[in-house]
Each structure stands twice: as C-alpha cells, then as structure tokens.
Amino acid sequence: MLKIKRERIMCPCGSGKKYPQCCALYHGGSFPETAEQLMRSRYCAFVKHDVEYLLRTQHKDLASANDRQEILDTFQDCQWLELKVLDSKKGAKGDIEGSVEFLATYANEGQVFEHRENSRFKKVGPQWFYHSIV
C-alpha cells in the first residue's frame, strides 16, 4: 500500500504552500483574511469535493434550493487542474468588499477547458463570502 504524507501535498489553490498550512485551515473552520484567500480556498474545495465549505462561504443573497445539487453535479462533471489568479482589487483585511479575477483550467469528458471569472466578495463580520460575478 502506498502511503502519502499529507505534509508533502501541495495545496491545489496554487499558493505554493502545503495543503495543511493553506486551505486546510479554512476548510477546518478558520476564516480567510482576504478575498483572494477565500477565492483560492473555494477553488480548493471544488478540487476536494467539499460541498459544505462551498455552501458555508456563499453569501446568503445567492442561496437557492438547488445549490447543493448543482455543486454536487459539478463534482461529477469536472476535474479541476489549475488555478491562476489574474487580478485582485480591494479585498484586503480592512476592506468589506473585493474582487478577484482568475482562470481555472479543468477537464470534462476528456477535453480541457478554461473558466475565466471575475468574482465579487463581501465581508460580514470576520468572514468573507463569495457574492457574485462582476
């Protein structure tokens, strides 16, 4: 049996950090300090099929009855391959809004695609939430 040490696994978000010192902290309950950290941790949650984190970090303005199933459907359809952050506006510790433009590469039915998005984030209390597409 092949044993892989968790400490050696790089975080899928592209930060260059190991997963336990990066997005695992947020998936485990800590709040990202910036909009970009939230965006990266949400991408990582798609990679790791963590529907609970995705729902927990989605702004209440976006909530619909089908959210869980729509997310679960993407888990079946996509294999996320790479994330590149293209731009970030505001979204620092002291801000209450910010946006992050990114390019995510994924595979679906043997083909590779790119998803480019400029996402808006809002902070409520100490927690950032995904809000909408700019």
UniProtKB/TrEMBL annotation:
Domain of life: Bacteria
InterPro entries assigned: NTF2-like_dom_sf, SEC_C_motif, YchJ-like_M
Domain YchJ-like middle NTF2-like: 34-131
Pfam families registered for this protein in UniProt: SEC-C (PF02810), YchJ_M-like (PF17775)
Protein name as catalogued: YchJ family metal-binding protein
UniProt organism field: Lentisphaera profundi
Upper taxonomic lineage: Bacteria, Pseudomonadati, Lentisphaerota, Lentisphaeria, Lentisphaerales
